[in-house]
Amino acid sequence: MTTSTKSVVVFSQNYLPLNRINFRRAVTLLAMGKAEPIIFFEDTTFKEIRSPSIVIQVPPVIRLYQSAERPWKIPPVSRKEILRRDEHQCQYCGNRKQLTIDHIIPRSRGGKHIWNNVVIACADCNSRKGNKTPEEAKMTLLNKPKAPKHPTIAFAEQFWQEQQLVTDN
Ligand SMILES: [Zn+2]
């Protein structure tokens, strides 16, 4: 393992998984007294860092002593943010090339430029769909478009899902 691997999960003061940081950053937070180890699973393995004056045990999960809440707003609807939400994938056929923005209810028919009316579509799907709704064009969306989630909530959902997978196996 290298020290740049994002191997340590940081929990907030209120025990919400926030993000994943690299080992070096975790050592700094622990050494500065800004975080504490949390023993979360019985088989937790610590990694030990020694210097002449201190020994630091770094577990895979640490918890911040202070709140690190940062204000967050739903990002405005932009090509960059839609690409990120839709993971650079056409939401009709899964193609990753020649990506455009499709308004599910076409703008010419009153469709708005809002999160649940925009998706990434490849040029082929977009021209096939034309001025129709997906139903009229007999095309199915891979995902129901929604506004992006708060990054902490998205991370927390993913984190617990991964733990679930570990436990299930
Ligand atoms: Zn497509």
Overall description:
With 169 residues, this protein is α+β, with helices and mostly antiparallel strands. It has two domains: 8-70, no CATH class; 79-137, DNA Binding (I), subunit A (Orthogonal Bundle). It is elongated, with a radius of gyration of 22 Å. A hairpin with a 5-residue loop joins strand 1 (8-11) and strand 2. It has helices at 23-31, 79-85, 123-129, 134-137, 151-168; strands spanning 8-11, 17-21, 35-37, 47-50, 55-58, 61-64, 99-103, 118-122. The strands form three sheets. It has a four-stranded mixed sheet with strand order 2-1-6-3. The protein has a two-stranded antiparallel sheet with strand order 4-5. The mean pLDDT is 89. It binds zinc ion. Zinc ion binds next to strand 8 and helix 3.
